[in-house]
Design goal:
- The protein has helices at 3-88, 93-120, 123-147.
- The protein is an all-alpha fold.
- It folds into 2 domains: 1-89; 90-146.
- Helix 2 runs antiparallel to helix 3 (123-147).
- The radius of gyration is 42 Å and the shape is rod-shaped.
- The chain crosses the membrane at residues 6-28, 101-121, 127-145.
- Keywords: Membrane, Transmembrane, Transmembrane helix.
């Protein structure tokens, strides 16, 4: 073989192997990039799910705090109402009699209004009006007589 032909064959072979190496490097780089992007996508999906779970946990915690604050407010209101009622003290007999009749009279009046609404309401708004009136009458009955009843161990 001629030295020039051998040199040309070596150059061509080296160039061919260089092209094949470059092509293999590019193919490997493509798969590496694809794998890295898939990993990033999975990582971001995991981050998103984690943030969503944290948001739900904070929402539930906030709901619990609101329920606790509402219950505390109700107890504070009941305590203040009972303290105000106890602070009135004794007065003229007719004033005490009127005070004693007020709750039963208002409750009876509220139930009477609820019954009249139930009898007289037409079909379109009937359910909503009846539910509202029944809610008000029940709440008043339980508030005025259930929660504010005489304390145990009191003298009268």
């Amino acid at each position: 073989m001629d030295p020039i032909t051998g040199l040309a064959a070596s150059a061509a072979g080296g160039g061919l192997f260089g092209l094949i190496g470059t092509a293999l490097g590019r193919v490997a780089g493509y798969f590496e990039t694809r794998q890295r992007l898939q990993h990033e996508t999975e990582r971001w999906a995991h981050e998103t799910k984690l943030l969503e779970l944290q948001r739900h946990a904070r929402a539930e915690e906030t709901e619990g705090e609101l329920a606790l604050a509402e219950a505390s407010g109700r107890w504070a209101g009941l305590s203040a109402s009972m303290a105000a009622d106890a602070a009135i003290g004794e007065s003229y007999k007719w004033v005490s009699a009127v005070r004693g009749v007020t709750r039963p009279a208002l409750t009876l009046l509220l139930w009477l209004i609820a019954g009249l609404i139930w009898i007289g309401a037409d079909g379109a708004g009937r359910a909503s009006i009846i539910e509202t009136a029944t809610f008000a009458a029940t709440a008043a009955t339980l508030w005025w007589f259930g929660d504010r009843g005489p304390r145990r161990g009191s003298a009268g």
